[in-house]
Amino acid sequence: xxxxxxxxxxxxxxxxxxxxxxxxxxxxxxxxxxxxxxxxxxxxxxxxxxxxxxxxxxxxxxxxxxxxxxxxxxxxxxxxxxxxxxxxxxxxxxxxxxxxxxxxxxxxxxxxxxxxxxxxxxxxxxxxxxxxxxxxxxxxxxxxxxxxxxxxxxxxxxxxxxxxxxxxxxxxxxxxxxxxxxxxxxxxxxxxxxxxxxxxxxxxxxxxxxxxxxxxxxxxxxxxxxxxxxxxxxxxxxxxxxxxxxxxxxxxxxxxxxxxxxxxxxxxxxxxxxxxxxxxxxxxx
Length: 285
Hints:
Blueprint: E1 4-7, H1 13-30, H2 40-52, E2 56-63, E3 66-74, E4 80-82, E5 86-87, H3 96-110, E6 115-121, H4 125-133, E7 137-146, E8 158-161, H5 167-178, H6 183-192, E9 196-200, E10 203-208, E11 217-219, H7 222-231, E12 240-243, H8 247-255, E13 259-270, E14 278-280
Parallel strand pairs: 4-6
Antiparallel strand pairs: 1-2, 2-3, 3-4, 3-5, 6-13, 7-12, 7-13, 8-9, 9-10, 10-11, 11-14
């Protein structure tokens, strides 16, 4: 029977979560890497959150009533982020992933999103080829890093919890660095209480929605990002993503006990500006 694509539903969480875990764990095992998702329960929790979030679009692929895979598009900010796109191991290499990608790309086009971005595991050459073949351009390599809290402070850079009154200042920092803002994600982080800002010379010069795999940070300078990392009590999920080209930040993190678990590729379609500052992407971008 033909593959059918439909919107995701809340009751898809268990099946899509299981497939998400099996897909990521399988490809990681093939390359002797630890899975980025530690368990089916953890994957289901992530998928359930995304299926129920009003700012995230979801699509599910079915064949004969059986779920074959899913994909998501984070629409909380003007530039949209793809993923996770996952396909059941038994259905891989049959065009399901391509259909799921084409669906979210069409969704982005219909919404006139200025750009689409994603991160993919560097060891997964098939997914790299798929995305490149669909028009995504490689931008840079990210190092996923995990380890014990660093602690300490960066002189001249105060880190404090963000408040609702800081939202526009955070958006301004992001616009200065990236040319766009990610206000929807910052607003979510303010609601959950995970957002924090750096203050330098009596003004906000950086922020983080959290220090984790699913969060991002932006700063006018590397010192802003160092201060945010140093203040974190832990690094959520597989860890934080540090641009490998930022040698000063990467080497500082290594000296302070963080270790690289894998390398990931940032890929984009449409609007992209070379960063005019420092940043940590989320796994979306």
